[in-house]
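User:
Can I borrow your eye for a moment on a structure tokenisation matter? Would you put together a sequence-and-structure record for a protein of your own picking? Please set it down just below, with no commentary around it:
AI:
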Amino acid sequence: MKTPNLLRTVQPFIAVIAVIATAMVLVVAIYFTLLDLAWIAFLTGILFAGLISVVTRATRAEFVAASSVARLAVLEDNMVQTTRRADKLQALLARADAALQFADEMQPAMVAYIDDQGVYRYHNRAFGRWLDLPAHRIDGHHLREALGRLVYSQIEPDVVRALAGETVRYLRTHKMSDGSGVRVNAQLLPVLGPRGKPSGFFAVLSDASEIARPGGPDDPAVSGAAMPESPAAKAAREDQAQFNASVAEEATGMHDARARILAAIKRNEFLLFCQSIVPLDPASGESTHYEILIRLQEEENNMISPGAFFPLAEENGLLPDLDRWVVADLLARASTLRQKGTVPGKEFFFINIAAATLCDADFPDYVVHQLNKHDCPAEMLCFEIAATDLRSHRGDVDQFVRNIKLAGCRVALSGFGRDRVSINVLKDLPLDFLKIDGSVILQLQRDPVNLSKVVAICRIAKTIGITTIAEMVEDGATMSKLRKIGVPYAQGFGISPPRPLSELT
């Protein structure tokens, strides 16, 4: 390796010496040949060729040197960028370590992380003590193995919903293998991976009551009926909500949550995703519609799931502001799509409405203003109300539905069938769509009770004149069964995972 390098070093000097020697020979030849033109021409040509060779080598050397300098500059810039990323990563790791230590050592609530295969990857000490299992019997094991088949069968629909990207909250009594019951307050927070697909979820749990014997008519683990919330349970739920917000704050780094979310709204740092709602009968001629989902974009194009920032937005009273941003941004994009001809006009968009927005009397007027501003038809918007919000805010829901229908928009009720909701609600509210809850659809193939429930819901809705949509459809067999029952629409990861709304263009 040293010899070629030496040759490359001395080559320019050899060329210069050769040119000088040729010039001296030319002078001597002119002197001794008495100005013989043939010799002079010959030697002049050799001298000229030598000069060209030297100039060429010098130019090439200069070019190589310039290229090397440019490459060094690029490498230096890359090194600076790598150093900055490493510093950011180190800061994130330090913050993550602090949050992990906070959750592991200082909090009495139970925290665990489950990956997209349903396997435990992390749990804190309180969680291990609650299960009364050593760490090696939890981490690396599936939920079914760690919890047991009985408990897992009770939470399986909630797990599937969380792995589908939905934030799940419940207050429920679990039947244990020894026949006892444990009242659990739980929140399942999805974690988003590349392109917004859930890569797992955090489970935040707390024991909300004393151990009791199940079996009474009011026990939801047995009967499925909702239990009246006692003052102690209410206090536990409020404490859990405060802790969940604290965990979300630690996980996202939003130590000034209100300012951070308001800044994100102002700078359009939220991203709209959509999930297709498809007609199950191809011959119906109906169009595919879309449910609008929201993500928060962070540094390095990472995204924070709604489960992480929604509790913070709710805690700071910002959900109505966020819903307004969704309406404004969606209509601006829809207007562009309509101008391009991408959306023919039969499609429309489902927007989930927060409970706080239902209580905002000015929201319908804001929607009308945005529709006029972007010259979009009102019927392209369908506002989706959760069945749980209907029970707790019935008066506000009635007023909201009345005003939003007067504006010309559509209304859907989601999560129907999960809990007990009076059929009279369907007759009293002028609904356009009824979404059958995913926990019912997931058990459709193996649970005849859920199958009967879907059949009854579909028949009643059809009689009233409401179109049904099946949520969380995961496979073709479920689609075929729904098609036979007569459910017109379906959505879920088995049909289409969420994707950026910008891909519709």
